[in-house]
């Protein structure tokens, strides 16, 4: 399952996504974690120190390598230079799988050790560099994530967990449609639920599966507020956590010591994500991929690359789990 955590800045989405990642890793689930927020905090939330966090390889800086690998032998793509963030796979493209080793993971992923020999492969978009300041758009960084998600085939019991950018900025690309389940982290405040309303409205026409996780919920009044504001979309809530407070100080206890009420909330998240597997529609997933590629091609991609990017679309190709068995990396 491909799972996104979204929410306004300060809502706790990175904290919740890191707890969910730890929860999956503790069960040894096949797993990749991605920090797609320009404010790179996921590595620290998973226990990395400042030095290790700063030296994580940025996906955005390795985009030429990513494009060249994913292009493979696709005859519709003349060169890797003509690929953009939305380029869809086709016959001959190389695909990514959760558990394999490949040049993209070798260049962009690092293994983060957790409790009891559990670990997770972490990938990050990377922060702005000095050369980006004043001239680069944030979405030029997350384009590498979108391209990888477009070429990733995951099977049952496998997970990609993405900590997204804050607020509704993710709607500036088609990446919001790349997930089986989106968890929106909301505080019990008017500002806390405002992003939910935006997300709900923008996602309405794209079949995005959206559930709200109430965070920093301190009592019945907070719970009643969230229920009144988001209705049946409220999935579960998380309250105060001494474990999280210790983690934020850089001294996380063993994960098994996380409060039971919060561990139960994580179990609810996983059960909900797993249930989304039965509703997968690879035809729609591929169709939406093509839709956003054609929009980007017309608005800026053709002019930037000097190519007709609509010709990259393979009309007979559908990204599907059957490809796990039939298409092998080269």
From TrEMBL:
GO terms for molecular function: ATP binding; ATP hydrolysis activity. Keywords: ATP-binding, Nucleotide-binding. GO terms for biological process: negative regulation of cell division. It comes from the Bacteria. GO terms for cellular component: cytoplasmic side of plasma membrane; cytosol. This is ATP-binding protein. It comes from Streptomyces luteoverticillatus.
């Amino acid at each position: 399952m491909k799972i996104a955590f979204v929410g306004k800045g300060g809502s706790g989405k990175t904290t919740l996504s890191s707890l969910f990642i730890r929860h999956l890793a503790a069960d040894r689930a096949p797993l990749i974690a991605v920090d797609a927020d320009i404010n790179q905090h996921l590595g620290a939330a998973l226990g990395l120190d400042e030095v290790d966090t700063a030296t994580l390889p940025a996906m955005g800086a390795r985009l030429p390598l990513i494009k060249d690998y994913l292009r493979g032998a696709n005859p519709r793509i003349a060169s890797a230079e003509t690929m953009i963030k939305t380029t869809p796979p086709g016959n001959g493209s190389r695909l990514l799988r959760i558990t394999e080793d490949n040049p993209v993971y070798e260049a962009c992923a690092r293994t983060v050790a957790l409790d009891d020999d559990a670990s997770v492969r972490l990938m990050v978009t990377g922060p702005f560099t000095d050369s980006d300041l004043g001239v680069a758009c944030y979405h030029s960084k997350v384009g590498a994530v979108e391209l990888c998600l477009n070429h990733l085939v995951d099977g049952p019991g496998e997970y990609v967990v993405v900590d997204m950018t804050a607020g509704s900025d993710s709607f500036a690309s088609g990446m919001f449609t790349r997930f089986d389940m989106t968890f929106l982290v909301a505080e019990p405040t008017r500002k806390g639920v405002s992003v939910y309303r935006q997300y709900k409205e923008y996602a309405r026409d794209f079949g995005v599966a959206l559930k709200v996780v109430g965070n920093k919920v301190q009592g019945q009044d907070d719970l009643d507020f969230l229920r009144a504001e988001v209705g049946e979309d409220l999935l579960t809530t998380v309250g105060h956590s001494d474990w999280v407070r210790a983690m934020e100080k850089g001294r996380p206890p063993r994960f098994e010591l996380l409060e039971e009420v919060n561990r139960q909330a994580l179990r609810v998240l996983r059960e909900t994500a797993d249930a989304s597997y039965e509703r997968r529609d690879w035809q729609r997933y591929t169709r939406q991929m093509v839709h956003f590629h054609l929009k980007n091609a017309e608005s800026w991609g053709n002019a930037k690359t000097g190519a007709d990017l609509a010709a990259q679309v393979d009309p007979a190709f559908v990204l599907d789990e059957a490809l796990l068995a039939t298409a092998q990396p080269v």
